[in-house]
Amino acid sequence: MPDVYGEVTRSKMIVVESYDVNGNKVELTAHEDVARMILHIIDQMNGIPFTERADRILTDKEVEAYFIND
């Protein structure tokens, strides 16, 4: 969603299990930003927009302040 920003609470550590092309189980542990990105991508693949997970949507002024202070 372009130009829409929000705060989403996500786990700081996740363990993801999947299978490779040969059917072997693969396990990945991710922390902090990588965990956040993986959870975001999983939501996208399941058709869940981040706005459904957002604790709140940020105003334009809050977004501007974030990027100015970054």
Automatic annotation (TrEMBL):
It is an enzyme of class 3 (hydrolase). GO terms for molecular function: peptide deformylase activity. The keyword Hydrolase applies. The keyword Hydrolase applies. Signal peptide: none annotated. It holds the Pfam family Pep_deformylase. Keywords: Hydrolase. Its EC number is 3.5.1.88. Belongs to the polypeptide deformylase family. This is Peptide deformylase. The gene is def1.
